[in-house]
Amino acid sequence: MCDDGKMETNGGGSVTEIGGLSIMTWNINGLRSFQNFPEIVRNLKADIICFQETKVTRDMLPEPSAIIPGYTSYYTFTRNGTAYSGVATYVKNSCTPVAAEDGLTGYLSKPGCEIGGTRLINQEFTQEELKSLDSEGRCVITKHKLNIEENKQDKKIQHLILINVYCPRADPEREDRKEFKLKFYKALDIRANTLAEEGNHVIVLGDVNTSHRELDHCDPYDEFHDHPGRRFLDHFLNIDNESSSQERKHSVQKSSETSISDGWQCERVNIKENQFHDAFRIIHGSRSQAFTCWNTKMNCRSTNYGTRIDYILISHLMKQYLKDCDIHADILGSDHCPVTANFNLKIIPGQKPPPSATKFYPEFQGRQLNLKDMLATSSQKATVPVNTTTNATKRPLQSSTLAPPAAKKSKQAPTKITNFFTSKKQDVNINVEVVKTATEEIVHNENNSVQENDVTQTIMEEVSLVRKENKAAWGKLFKAPKPVPLCAGHQEECVKRKVTKKGPNQGREFYCCARGEGRADDPNARCNFFKWAVIR
């Protein structure tokens, strides 16, 4: 997606369909940044598309984006009225779910629409904690009925459940956000594992906001594995190849040595470990520099200096149906890129979309006002009362949205004929005084012609001085900017940036290399040039 809202890819503008069930995840970093969102959804061509970070509240959601022909969509929004976070799942009519839930914990599910898997999560968390976890619009769950005749290997499993998540980011300056993120991981662990244990195929996909392995990070730092989010993923995922297994052993050993309680461990219930698999690593093993997120402010996408934090994680029995999984770094439009997985599975579409589908939102139903709505109180709707008597002439209702009736003109006192002469008399007096003053000045100037020349010269000198001062002031205002310095590494023009970190230099501007940030051994990456724009 480029700046004008058009889809851009290196391969023709869409994701190639290879048959079977195609599922995509993409953090779009704001639905409103796409000028033609319905066209983008159609061009992606996946059967199920899971978006994260929609950044819209319900009242901001435009109808053309909410209701796309051929699809049903399921949204969740923040509950505090702020347009951040947000998750949406778009499903082709050929894969219509039989149930859908707003939220991860089941707290927001309506009676008769439950998907299940909430028994243990209700034991682990209080009702207040469940409400808090689902207050930021971070999860949509859909349940799909499988064609068991096609699933010959395991006919007992009749449903596929997709958990579309946007996991919280841990703000290093806020301890409460770190705790919230770890609680969200814990809730995800319990719900996903329980649904799998209850006999469903389960897929967890979305922005996990943690890169799992060193291969998934552009610059793995010291104590990389000593991170609670990675230890959660070590617990949640089953690592398949040998090199990654060694990484996990190192991480588990270090975790046991530190004996730190990370906050994601369950306190009241027991959950099995390593029940899910990373679909991308099943297909691509130890492929390096396969990233899904880049810092666009630092132009890191140009040097592929990023992280892999967008995942498609599948339950154990789903491995046998996985055909392919890949990252689409060529699709632009966000600081993230899409990830797609394809499965040898077929879905039987539900006869009717679940009640939480956006097509059933009252604001998109096109409901017309009835007589009861029109006869609302005058402060809300009508500005003219209705005459209900049979003999009286009926007057049309006037909605508050229409222009109010014209105000009656106030009666004015009759104009007297003497009023027409008063203003003219005053004008005549004023004109006489002006002429008299001008005459006196002319006579005075004729008697003092020498003084007039002196005064004129003085005035001209003052005008000239004012002109010079104005010219100098405009010259300072439109002074040509200083030349942009060249970076030492590439001899290219630098870019000006501003310090945003809190401290004595916050707000100061500086010059640095215009190239994208990258690895230290990458000659095409940003060099270390630095220069303050203004020296204090």
- Assign the CATH class of the largest domain: Alpha Beta
Low-confidence spans: pLDDT under 50, at least 5 residues? 1-18, 255-259, 376-406
Distance between the termini: 41 Å
Shape: elongated
Beta-strand percentage range: 15-25%
| Corresponding CATH superfamily of the largest domain | Endonuclease/exonuclease/phosphatase
Q: What is the β-strand count?
A: 18
Class by alpha and beta content: alpha+beta
Largest sheet descriptor: 7 strands, mixed
Q: Helices and strands, in N-to-C order?
A: EHEHEEEHHEEHEHHEHEEEEEEHHHEEE
CATH topology of the largest domain: Deoxyribonuclease I, Chain A
Task: Tell me the radius of gyration.
Answer: 35 Å
Instruction: Domain count, please report it.
Output: 3
Query: What does the average pLDDT come to?
Result: 81
> What is the helix fraction of residues, given as a range?
25-40%
Structure description:
- 26% of the residues lie in helices and 16% in strands.
- The protein is an alpha+beta fold and 536 residues long.
- It folds into three domains: 21-364, Endonuclease/exonuclease/phosphatase (Deoxyribonuclease I, Chain A, 4-Layer Sandwich), CATH 3.60.10; 427-477; 481-536, no CATH class.
- Strands 5, 6, 7, 8, 9, 12 and 15 form a seven-stranded mixed beta sheet that branches. It has a six-stranded mixed beta sheet with strand order 3-4-2-1-14-13.
- Helix 5 runs parallel beside helix 6 (228-236).
- The longest helix has 29 residues, at 419-447.
- The chain is elongated.
